[in-house]
Amino acid sequence: MQLLKDKFGRVHDYIRISVTDRCNLRCVYCMPEEGLTFLPHEKVLSKDEIVSFMELMVKFGIKKVRITGGEPLLRTDIVEIVRGLGAIPEIEDISITTNAMYLAKKAEALKEAGLTRVNISLDSLHADRFQAITRGGRLQKVLDGIQKAEEVGLFPIKLNVVLIKGQNDDEITDFLRFTKDKDINIRFIEYMPIGHAGTSWKEKYLPLDTIFEACDEAGYEYEPVDSIRGNGPSENFRIKGAKGTFGVIHPVSAHFCDSCNRLRLTADGYIKACLYWDEEMNIRPFIHEPVKLMQLVQKAIDNKPENHEMALKLQDEVQSNKPTWRHMSQIGG
Fold first, then answer.
1. Which residues form the Radical SAM core domain (predicted)?
2. pTM of the model
3. How far is CA 274 from CA 93, 131, 212, 305, in A?
């Protein structure tokens, strides 16, 4: 089998597929308050295009898929998309990242269709603060979604917490306590400069050493763990005696580019080899032309930089490439 390898020897076996750029929330780190102009429906990849694309990609070693958005559960055919991907024997793992507003209603059908596990965005455990960060989200719906995911067996359940200075950094201990009685992986993620012009994003940035300082202040003893399926870039730990775990994902201060095995497909059919840089290839016209399509995919991989240099942006230093013009909701994370 010909594997998708870049010039630094990184083998790509994992893809994140954005199935929509639309979202029912306006999270402060993901989308401007006024929203964005969404793609017209005809510009978005269809279920058949997504499945056809993956039927080819598995022949080159792709075996893990994460469905993203926007908010993927807004797709009326999301269950059929999962079912189509689940019917491809080479795909070993199908996960989804969601804000969970509709998860309680759709979890059972998604599980039956072949969904393996879920990542859920949850940036506050206080209803009013959660509503402010998401600009309209309802915390109880997320909690109901988590409960339903547990009931139907979508494990491991991972909760994504973007750490925002001055907005949720006083809740770190609350999130850590959340792992004590629930078999859940809380993942603290650094605030990233994607979709933010200038340097204003740095006012909200906190390094993830803050998590370990909170553990020490609370008297929590913790130890590293490495047995979480699909842990990706997360460094995971367990408070001694806890059922669940917590992890840290630090794309800015300590990038994990040397082990990056991910490709991204945007909702409008562009392949991206790096989340941060602006280079992307339009593969949609060639979904049914395997040779040309794979030439473009390999070209994207060949052009993938060694790292994204977000740390240089943190220090206001010059970067070697141009950052993406897309907001996070237009890429899929």
1. 7-221
2. 0.91
3. 21, 31, 29, 8
